[in-house]
Amino acid sequence: MAEEFVPQIDGKSFEDVAEDYLTDLIGRSLVMVAKKRSNGSVKVCHVHDLLLEYCKRKAEEENFFELIYKEDKHTLCDDLDDILESTYSLSPEELYTRHTQRRLCIYSQRESFLVKSRPSGPQLRSLLFFDINDKSLTKPYDISPICLALRGEVCLPYTLSRLRHLHVDARAVFGCDGWNLIQLENLQTISTPALIYNKDHAMDPNEVMRRLPNLRKLRCISVDSEDCCHFPSLECVSRLESLKILHYGQSFSSCKFNFPSNLKRLTLPKFQLPWTEISRIGSLPHLEVLKLLARAFEGVQWDMKDGEFLKLRFLKLDSLNIEQWNISSDCLPSLEHLVLQSCKKLKEFPSCLGDVSTLHSVELHWCSRSSVNSIISIQEDEGFKVHVYPREFDS
């Protein structure tokens, strides 16, 4: 997409068209699938060694990609100093011709590279920067890339208005400065910033969401203020399809939360919500994948109500203290895969699971022996597969 290999097709986003191309390459055995998502789409892929070497050679010939990387950060700084000394002494014209690559990946200290070299140029479309140990990254880049990977404190300049994919790491936060001019209307995905509700340290997360009107995928960390809990306001990101939000702070038992109706994938860890609030999620009309992890909900009984989770295809429950699970006859009519992990207090599966004709498989990881016996007894009358881990539980 950054290289404009993917054409604009009416009714489809660049990302959807690119996925079609990837599927074609997989079908021709040029790309191999290494890992799939819970909904069956490709998550990780790789290419054969011969194809990789060919791509690297072509990238070098056409000034397509440059990687500056060293695992030993002490050696790295020495090497960078040598590079920068020769680069920084060039005239502006010579410096411009030196930075002709269209994709640049940097693993460095900010002071030893970015501040001195200021990587820029109209041909640079994709920039990946991995900071070794500095926690502030406030120098604006003179580029409008399609992809950007950052660590530390993030202050995006207005020149990044074309940005489509942003990844920040190490619990980076959005700084208060540098956002007064920017509206990222093209941004499609963002991961994994810390949304901190503290005016002295970071920008208001609700204001961040208002700057991202066309966001489709969000992975983030929600950090409470000292006095109360918060849930990001998501009304303005109505196109959001995938959400993974990790919570650090108080229980959400008294806190309002909401999700966009267009949501298809939802992952919630550590929210400690009461099961009475699950209907807010169950009523989402397009939800296909749900993962409730690490005390996402608190309580011993989950009662699924009529008409909930009508489109859900994949459900994962991990490290919950649920003891009793009740399902009405018309819940989960589209469920294909069910995964339970470390739900050791659950003794019995609801018998209504046997009435779900779409169910293909059930996985149990470190669950109670009685729950294993329960799902096996249901399976005997149905056609779905049961996988039990560790194996000695399946006896």
Give a quick rundown of the structure:
The chain is of the alpha/beta class and 395 residues long. Helix content is 19%, strand content 28%. Residues 70-99, 111-118 and 134-145 have low confidence and may be disordered.
Describe this structure in words.
The protein has helices at residues 14-27, 49-61, 73-88, 92-98, 114-117, 205-210, 279-282, 369-379; strands at 31-36, 42-47, 65-68, 103-108, 126-131, 136-137, 147-154, 165-174, 189-191, 194-196, 217-223, 242-248, 265-269, 273-274, 289-293, 297-298, 301-304, 314-318, 324-327, 337-341, 361-365, 385-389. It is an alpha/beta fold. The protein folds into 4 domains: 1-62, no CATH class; 63-134, no CATH class; 148-262; 264-395, Leucine-rich repeat, LRR (right-handed beta-alpha superhelix), CATH 3.80.10. The protein has a 16-stranded parallel β-sheet that branches. A two-stranded antiparallel ribbon has the order 1-2. A two-stranded parallel sheet has the order 14-16. Strand 10, helix 6 and strand 11 form a beta-alpha-beta unit. Residues 70-99, 111-118 and 134-145 have low confidence and may be disordered.
Task: Please supply descriptive tags for the structure shown above.
19% helix, alpha/beta, 4 domains, globular
- The average pLDDT is 76
CATH fold group of the largest domain: Leucine-rich repeat, LRR (right-handed beta-alpha superhelix)
Alpha plus pi helix count: 8
- Please state the CA-atom Rg, rounded to the nearest Å: 24 Å
Q: Strand count, sense and closure of the main sheet?
A: 16 strands, parallel
Order of helices and strands: HEEHEHHEHEEEEEEHEEEEHEEEEEEEHE
Number of strands: 22
